[in-house]
Amino acid sequence: MKPGDKLIKHYLQFKDLRTEEYTYLFDRARIIKARFKNYERYQPLVDRTLAMIFEKASTRTRVSFEAGMYQMGGSVVHLTTGDSQLGRAEPVEDSARVISRMVDIVMIRTYEQAKLDTFAAHSRVPVINGLTNEYHPCQILADIFTFIEHRGAIRGKTVAWVGDGNNMANTWLQAAEILGFKVHVSTPGGYEIDPAVAGIRDAGCYEVFNHPLEACAGAHLVTTDVWTSMGYEAENEERRKAFVDWCVDDEMMAAAQPDALFMHCLPAHRGEEVTADVIDGPQSVVWDEAENRMHVQKALMEYLLLGRIG
Ligand code: CP
Ligand code: NVA
Q: What residue segments make up the domains of the chain, in order of their start?
């Protein structure tokens, strides 16, 4: 970066933003969502272009970023590994230099976080993590916004994480540290969270339980994810055996607070990590959670490109 260059703000991990920036973003997401529901046009990003790079499959991330950018007046370029030079081993540094000269903001879904970090280090424009093996910050942004909509502040509350110590679990831990809540984590042996990978400093923001039912006791939110994340398909059979007791069911929901919510980032496998009764039941807010991806990401793109409004 040369002297006088504008400082670029990326969103590569949940901890890239501070507590008060989240307060601002949740408020903006609420306003942006209300305008959308009211059919009010809000186009602060006219002439801005978002490049979306997908090295893994997606439904929600693709639709929420693409629809969100168009609604804000901007446009979108969609790239995948298969149809770009990324799949033919063009260095990620060169891809970042080129793409970021032509667009205003970039969203990337890829494998290793290191690749995203390298892209961001060579980008002239803000880069957003649309999921890596290690983190999924946009999803947790939506999940916490959804919690706030339904139950108010998350500070001081307990979130039960039932399942794999994966990208979602790591990001919940980062969020707990920044926003002041606690995560009760229960994973099968061999699939534990690694605080170094999660990137947290405060061991007090989570507690580990051997049994998922214990993790759910008293929780205000129970959440889970697929047994096998994208990129780990070769371990599928092994995981199906290891995770068999990590299925969120009525008994686990009954152990949580009477008004506990259930969330899942989706896509879900009914009968594996969650029963149909729970995900399709009255405590589940998974459809609000999915929709809220779009509203929070609109607030995020607005913030990264325009700074604070008003
Ligand atoms: N939750 C989520 O990121 O969904 P997609 O994989 O469909 O984008
Ligand atoms: N942990 C899952 C989340 C999918 C949105 C994965 O990485 O595949």
A: 14-136+290-306, 138-287
